[in-house]
UniProtKB/TrEMBL annotation:
Keywords: Fatty acid biosynthesis, Fatty acid metabolism, Lipid biosynthesis, Lipid metabolism, NAD, Oxidoreductase
Pathway(s) it belongs to: Lipid metabolism; fatty acid biosynthesis
Enzyme class: oxidoreductase
Annotated family: Belongs to the short-chain dehydrogenases/reductases (SDR) family. FabI subfamily.
Protein name listed in UniProt: Enoyl-[acyl-carrier-protein] reductase [NADH]
Natural source organism: Fulvitalea axinellae
EC number: 1.3.1.9
Binding site for NAD(+): G15, S21, I22, I95, K167
Domain of life of the organism encoding this protein: Bacteria
Biological processes per GO annotation: fatty acid biosynthetic process
One Pfam family it belongs to: adh_short_C2
SUPFAM superfamilies linked to this entry: NAD(P)-binding Rossmann-fold domains
Active-site feature positions: Y150, Y160
Length: 283
């Protein structure tokens, strides 16, 4: 249902790959709510995914750009403001990738060159996006910039390895640049800590299915799906959240504030009962 929450607003959405991605779902909701925008992803991601289909569906131009390259970002922002006919009201940074995770390297055995790539792609690119946006003065007053995070920035998820460090850095950048952009132009900067979500990036993490199911059992509302996260993102793009900035906002069905749930207790008790039964059989 359209409430025209973003009527007349223009922006850039980074990171849409396929219909499972949060950026993809955000583009659909933003279009429904009246926004105009440009879609962008790395050239290799454009070849791997279906972003051109999304562009046609949303009547949005697709511009390839490596978000770790300031030069690419400068070209992107220049082209985007020309195509959209004015400055931007919102930017979504939905970018994250760890070569170490893909190679299944444990945290104590990280390849440090790959570690730096993880930080550059997943966190420093957020700073670069805002740096270029500020230097080119492309953001309108009361604009909104959102990055996607995960609770591994605060809690240990062993198989998330260096991506946890990247998410911590991402959230720190949001606070620091949020202050800077807020003082300069009333532009707000926030991160959203989303439930584990079945996406291309998430699928590459060892044990993902296990902690997806665990979060589902821990969260009183269950895991928040991608399309619901998209609605939350759009609310942060809208004028209804003008004074929300420098925050890491949890969109996780209550996982982040639940100590233990009945479902998890039952799961543990069932496992213990099976273990006791096996011991009896052995005796």
């Amino acid at each position: 249902m359209s409430f025209n929450m973003l009527k007349g607003k223009k922006g850039i959405i980074f990171g849409a790959l396929d219909e499972n991605s949060i950026a993809w779902q955000t583009a659909l909701v933003a279009k429904e709510q009246g926004a105009e925008f440009v879609l962008s992803n790395a050239p290799i991601a454009l070849r791997m995914g279906k972003i051109q289909e999304l562009g046609e569906q949303c009547d949005a131009k697709v511009i390839p750009a490596d978000a770790t390259s300031v030069e690419d970002l400068e070209k992107l922002f220049s082209e985007a403001t020309e195509i959209l006919g004015g400055k931007l009201d919102f930017v979504l940074h939905s970018i994250g990738m760890s070569p170490n995770v893909r190679k299944k390297k444990p945290y104590g055995e990280l390849d440090y060159k790959l570690y730096m790539k993880t930080l550059d792609i997943s966190a420093l690119s957020f700073h670069k996006v805002m740096h270029v946006a500020e230097k080119q003065d492309v953001m309108n007053e009361w604009g909104s910039i959102v990055g996607l995070s995960y609770i591994a920035a605060q809690r240990v998820f062993p198989f998330y390895t260096d991506m946890a460090d990247a998410k911590s850095l991402l959230e720190s950048i949001a606070r620091s640049y949020g202050y800077r952009f807020g003082k300069a132009k009333n532009v707000r900067v926030n991160t959203i800590s989303q439930s584990p979500t079945v996406t291309k990036a998430g699928g590459g993490i060892k044990g993902f299915d296990v902690f997806f199911d665990y979060a589902e059992k821990m969260s009183p509302m269950g895991n928040a799906p991608a399309d619901e996260c998209a609605k939350y993102i759009v609310s942060l793009f809208s004028d209804f959240t003008r004074f929300v900035t420098m925050q890491n906002l949890y969109h996780d069905g209550g996982f982040s504030t639940t100590g233990i749930s009945e479902d998890v207790v039952e799961m543990i008790l069932d496992a213990k009962a099976r273990e006791d039964e096996e011991k009896k059989d052995e005796e």
